[in-house]
Specification:
heterodimer, A: 121 residues, Rossmann fold, five-stranded parallel β-sheet, B: 896 residues, Sodium/glucose cotransporter, Helix Hairpins, five-stranded mixed β-sheet, two-stranded antiparallel ribbon, 34 helices, 9 strands, rod-shaped
Amino acid sequence: MKKKILIVDDEPNIVMSLEYTFKKQDFEVFIARDGSEALEILKHHIPNVVLLDIMMPNVDGYQTLTHIKNTDSLKDTKVVFLTAKNKASDIEKGLRLGADKYLTKPFSVKKIVSEIMELVT
Amino acid sequence: MNNYALIIIIIIYLAVLFYIAFLAEKKRQSKWVNNPYVYTLSLAVYCSAWTYYGSVGIAANSGINFLPIYLGPVIAAPLWIVVLRKIIRISKQHKISSIADFISLRYGNNRFLGALVTIICLFGTLPYISLQLKAVSETFEIMSDDTSYISTTVIDDSTFYVALILAIFATFFGTQNTDASEKHKGIIATVAFESVLKLVFFLAIGIYVTYYLFDGTTDIYNKISVTPNFKELTTLGGIEDGFNWFFLIGLSFMAIFLLPRQFQVSVLENNREKHLKKAIWLFPLYLLLFNLFVIFIAWAGKITFGSTENAEYYSLLLPLENGNSFFATLVFLGGFSAVISMVIVSTLALSTMVSNNLIIPYGFLDKFIKNQPERNSKYIKNIRRISIFTIIISAYFFYVLFSKELSLYSIGLISFVIISQLAPSFFIGLFWNRGSSKAAIIGIIVGFFIAVYTLVLPFTIRVYTGTDDFTQYGLMGISALKPYALFGIDFLSPPAHAFFWSMTFNMMSYLVFSLISKGNYRERNYAEMFVDSKNFSSLQDSALVWKGEAYVSDIKSVLVRFLGEKRATRALTIFFTKYKLPQDTQLADARLINFSEKLLTGSIGSASAKILIASVVKEEQISLVEVLKILEESKENIVSNKVLIEKSNELSQLSSKLKDANKELISKDKQKDEFLDTVAHELKTPITGIRAATELLMDEDDDMPKDIKAQFLKNILQDSDRLGRLIHNILDFEKLETGRLNLDMQYQDIQKTITKAISSISQIAAKKEVQIINKNTHAFSTNYDEDRILQVLTNLLSNAIKFCSPKTGIIEIDFKLGNAFVEISVTDNGKGIPEEDHDFIFDKFYQSKDQNTRKPQGSGLGLAITKQIVDKHHGKIWAKKGKKDGAILVFTLPFK
């Protein structure tokens, strides 16, 4: 079975790099430009991991995470924050809400891949 | 009994008294001297020879009519707790030294009033002392059974020598201290001792007569009841006697407060207020015991002697008749002790008044000008000594002239009636602050003359003319002016009648003149202090109605004259310390004047003290207007206090404003933090893009398609541009916000600037196929910084392009002239700005929620910078409300 990843970010250039990277790792990649699009996709697909930005229009990353945590069918889905917010208080908040990992921008592509692989195998 | 033996007994007795007085003075602080029993016993100075002998006389001749004289004090006793305590308090605080001082101080330290009261007291007390001398003299004669010898000159009259001995004794103990307000412990101790003696001896003779000479009270009653006029003695004479009783009770009620000797013992010699509590029941008990056997001694005497002897001396005659000279001697000594107490305390009180209220203020004040405290104090003592001597000797002559004719009882009542003239000004003045000095003086004089006319004149005229015509027919034969039946009131006994009329006119005058004449400021000040004695210390300290100029050094020199250098200095030091004034204060204030007057009052009386202090104080009369002004000033003080309170309110408001400002600063700090956070976030986004793309290209294996490779490179370029633009905007914005940007104002045409803005953005518009229409093509020139306004226009236009739909988008740019400004608007037909966002769109990094997620053009600072530039031109910028599709952004530029 192909591993599934949902990338949620409002910056197209960043999304493009990530999409290219994970497709190469043989992931089935879903893309959402904000929280509301992500929730729409999650109605139909259950990804192994969600890579989530925080600062997005409409529904932000925190709300999306909370929704995932409250959805029974998504209980096996791992959530990883990938955001420019790197204050200690932000990281603490993200992990407290139930994120499995908290990664910060700018990032190294290789590092992201290894962190994600760690979660899904 | 032998004359000499009797004299020796008297001398031994006096020696014992001297010794007691000496002991008491030596142990001033001892419990034996300072207790409520001594205080109560000293009050019994009320029971003089009048009581001791006179009561029996009345009982024998007119039954129980002796009782009203004791019922008055018994009724007064419970009131002491209120009235006497108030008087004591006031007296202590003012260092009052006599009743004359007390009354004159109440009416503003009126010198004349003090002198008048002194004279009334003299007139009232002289007969009283002469009564005592008469009793001593007559009992002495009875005891010595030398009835054949009748003295013809002063020199061989034993009464004169008795008077002399009394004078020496009184002089010695009464003038130990210059300050008359100091306690006379020695005298009080002997008075208390003598009160015990006279009561014990009187009870002893009562028991002796009743149970030894007779077989108890029933035996006496049975024997007297068969005598012819017994019925008169045991019944009251109807309504008329009722009136007599009423007035006599009233008279004695006043006397217990007003008699100089009672004022001396009950007020001036009072150590502690709480002693009053015991005295209010113990003193009536003492009077009851004293009167227990009076009636039986009287009846026994009547049974034994019929009407052949003077009934007043039955108590002495009965044992003598039965050959018991020991008991007779005891009775004589008891009577003698009653006399001594009365004479000494009375002369002490009177001499103080005479010196402090009569002689010093009216005659000797000039003598005290020299700065010799030793001599001054000697002067004062000598004045008092001479006064005591003079009073006793005058009393002796009064006795020689008049008293031989009169009974003890009637002389006593004359004294009471005269003294009672002080009652209205004393009692009413204590509770009514309107009572004025003028009214007091008039009342006393009027009352005194009526008392003299109705009581003293009749017997004096009788003595001199030997006829009763004056009493019978009245003055010049007018029957309404009959001295014993004034205006037809003929049913009262002479003393009750005199008391009734004198008191009526006295009180009426006092009330009427008080109501029609207001006292001066000083008088009202003191009246207030007396009436409202609780507030008294504050009133006295503030003493707000005083105006004048005085130097501390002058006042001090006056004090030194009487107190000596040491005491004066110490007193002033205490004063300055108490009121927290510097020790070298030069100008005296009202408080110091008051303080100094009080200090001197003890030595020379309040009236004299006032005059002395006034001699160095330039005190100006204060009119009512000025009093009002002073009050006004204190009101102003209150007002300025109000201002102070307002100021402090302002201050606290200011401090709360400061707090708010601080909060704002903190929130500004927070905003700054947020701004930096946002800037960092915004900078990180393109860097992240660049970094990720570069990494992928570097690790590029050959199977990366060429078009993707090209896309990544394009992304890197785009992100780099975005980064550059962002940095530029941030710096721009920072410059604007901190006000470091100077506008380059030029007079130029807004039309040209608009055209430039449209052409600079036309490429982007064309790419999105959005149409830009310049609606107003007129020229209009004004002052502005063209580069900056161009930036504003470009921002607005590119924003509009951003929110317009491709191809169908239409943007209109327009300007019109207002009164003092030109208004430029940019309208688009895009998705518009949500109503709730209107207030925030000019905030930095604001991005609409509905904004397209693709925002390559936005730095989030565009509108914020735009607003800064417009603000800097003193213009305004806002989003117009109410447009359904699209947005209208308007800004103005003012012109002159």
